[in-house]
Amino acid sequence: MNFFGLIGCVFFFAIQFAHADARVGGEYSLTEDSLEHTNVKHGKLEGPFEFRSNIIPNTVRRYWIYVPANYSKKNPPNLLVFHDGQRAISPQGAFHVPTVLDNLIQKREIPSTLGVFITPGNLSEHYPDDLGLQNPNNRMAEYDALSDVYSRMLIDELLPLVAKKYRFSDNPNQRIIGGSSSGAIAAFTVAWNRPDAFRNVISMIGSYTSIGYQPATDNKLVQLGGDVYPTLIRKNPIRPLRIFLQDGSNDINNEHGDWFLANQQMLSALRWANANADTQGIAGARYDINYVWGDGGHSDQHGGVLLPDMLRWIWRDERNSKH
């Protein structure tokens, strides 16, 4: 475990013992970083906008743009892309991402950051108004697939559309992509396929399981699921990625796999890749890894509490830039 991972785990378990009588397993409370404050300048949340992709045809999705209060075209902000955008921005959700960005940017704990919050696609002419926080019907096909189709849609279609209105950094080290559950594996897949565009990943209760698996047929080759990622990490050259993993020991265990075990396998593979490269004297990048395991189930609650620390850790090298 690296230093930050050790500190995170020590902090987590210290909190558990300190509140052992009061805390119910799997429950976590938001910190001040995720709550609105009257003395904090608020960014602007624009949207929802509808987007129809040519790369993923017959789908429509919504997205929102968070513009930081200190936005400047002359000094383009960093970029945060977050999946399941309808939950990322919701006051009833666990993440409160715009509020977290407001607070951390004002405290100069992260650089100025533009946020793009994207829903999965829905197979319809218009995005259904009655979906609320529910998943659109093309989520699994997009998020749990290991191909580069979703990556191309995001990087080659949607982000250029956002860039027509707002400038943001084109440096992959100044971009984060994140999500929860299948949104987390989708974030990892984008960075895995396109480290030229994203080199930072936030993964909460990531679905590194066989959801995307489809057996071969007479007309189609087998489609692999996310459970092969530990193998791919071990068998391929290291990508220059910084990754924060979060999961809980009571996460799902079903026909697709064991979520907590799968996330531990991801951590093990990333660590092994680094150690093997060191042992073999292989020059180049190493995975920069942090993680926190809790006792939650398949819930966004713990990840939402940790989000401010995840952002601080990922952009720890440029805390005072872009202010």
Strand order of the largest sheet: 1-2-4-3-5-6-7-10
Structural class: alpha/beta
Approximate strand percentage: 15-25%
Multimeric state of these chains? single chain
Q: How many helices?
A: 9
Mean pLDDT: 93
Low-confidence stretches: 10-20
Topology:
Elements: H1 3-18, E1 44-52, E2 60-67, E3 78-83, H2 85-88, H3 97-106, E4 113-118, H4 139-143, H5 149-163, E5 175-180, H6 182-193, E6 200-204, H7 229-235, E7 242-248, E8 253-254, E9 257-258, H8 259-280, E10 288-294, H9 301-314
Helix pairs in contact: 7-8
List keywords for this structure.
323 residues; alpha/beta; 8-stranded mixed β-sheet; two-stranded antiparallel ribbon; 9 helices; globular
Quick summary of this structure?
By secondary structure, the chain is of the alpha/beta class. Helix content is 33%, strand content 18%.
Structure description:
With 323 residues, this protein is of the alpha/beta class. 33% of the residues lie in helices and 18% in strands. The chain contains nine helices and ten strands. It has helices spanning 3-18, 85-88, 97-106, 139-143, 149-163, 182-193, 229-235, 259-280, 301-314, and strands at 44-52, 60-67, 78-83, 113-118, 175-180, 200-204, 242-248, 253-254, 257-258, 288-294. The protein has an eight-stranded mixed β-sheet, sandwiched between helices. A two-stranded antiparallel sheet has the order 8-9. A hairpin with a 2-residue loop joins strand 8 (253-254) and strand 9. Helix 7 (229-235) runs parallel beside helix 8. The radius of gyration is 19 Å and the shape is globular. Residues 10-20 have low confidence and may be disordered.
